[in-house]
Amino acid sequence: MNKKYSVETLLKNYRESHRPSILEVQYLNFPGIENKDVYNPSYPITLEDMTILPCRVESRNSEHSEIVMFTNDGDDLNWNAAKRFQPLKLQDPFWTIDDSTVVIGGVDVEFSKNDDVVSWKTVFYKMNNYGDYSLLLVGPNKMKDIRFCPLKDGKIALFTRPQGDEISKRGQIGFILLNSWEELTADTIREAPLLNLFEDEEWGGVNHAQVLPDGNIGVLGHIACYTEGNIKHYYPISFIFDPYNSEIIKDPKIILERSQLLPGPSKSPDLDDVIFPGGAVQENGGTTLYLGVSDATVQRVKMENIF
């Protein structure tokens, strides 16, 4: 049985214990994007001859967003829109590769006539190397943070994040192990058992899940809460998960605070303390994190191995 974790406890543990050493913090730049913010990236992968990084792009005063695929010409701090790939009218991209199949997803938001957010769904596409998309699945209503992790034996680890009912409250992580992609349906996502990791007035989710050398899953996620005045706080967390026993085997821990990153703008004052951990890439014995910061910019952090 997994225990519950709170922002207060995890933050206290982080500040009092050993913090992972941060080796480098840098902004990523997106020349050619004018009068719009680029933020909430996924992580880069190589498709044939191109390294691609999907990011969310939108105006500062709007949530009407597109996922744009960016590439670089050897300069990994400067990313240009890859013309081969059509933008997707979604928010908060994520993706995974299973053999040669690329699955990319994002959040499809429904707006009222007054531009208020009415509802949202996570939408998944299969993508080939030349930028063509075919619809794979539309997830359940009002569910974000649905993530996949293909395992070494061909099974698919599926993390979910329902919210809004008596059990899931503001948002809890769910998990189910699938035998194959054929078992993936909206009902499967909706019915995944909850891990119940967060307190009732807090929430969290999985942003990127990857197989570690021992076969367990390294999870990059977030824990979040509101404070007085509806100020939102998002903290990136990591933990290690055994998918075959649905069990956390290394407790969640906060791995960064906003004050450790570079100063910069935010979409609005209530989002100053928001870090969206889009992806964690293991390289050179450490971890490179791709982060959306304050809903306005992308920063890259190189640090000790977070797992």
Proportion of residues in β-strands: over 45%
Per the CATH scheme, the topology name is: Tachylectin-2, Chain A
Distance between the termini: 21 Å
Mind telling me which CATH architecture this is? 5 Propeller
Broad CATH class: Mainly Beta
Total separate domains: 1
The biggest beta sheet is recorded as: 8 strands, mixed
Number of helices: 2
Shape: globular
Question: How helix-rich are the residues, as a percent range?
Answer: under 10%
Compressed to H and E, one letter per element, the order equals HEEEEEEEEEEEEEHEEEEEEE
The value of Rg in angstroms is 18 Å
Number of strands: 20
Instruction: Write the CATH homologous superfamily.
Output: Glycosyl hydrolase domain, family 43
Whole-number average pLDDT?
94
**Alpha-beta classification:** mainly beta
State the low-pLDDT regions, or none: none
Report on the structure:
With 307 residues, the chain is mainly beta. It has a single domain, classed as Tachylectin-2, Chain A (5 Propeller), CATH 2.115.10. Helix content is 5%, strand content 49%. The chain has helices at 7-16, 186-191; strands spanning 22-27, 37-39, 45-47, 50-58, 66-71, 80-81, 91-98, 101-111, 117-127, 133-141, 147-150, 156-160, 174-178, 203-211, 217-227, 231-242, 247-254, 273-283, 286-293, 297-304. The strands form four sheets. Strands 1, 14, 15, 16, 17, 18, 19 and 20 form an eight-stranded mixed sheet that branches. A hairpin with a 3-residue loop joins strand 15 and strand 16. The model has no long low-confidence stretch (mean pLDDT 94).
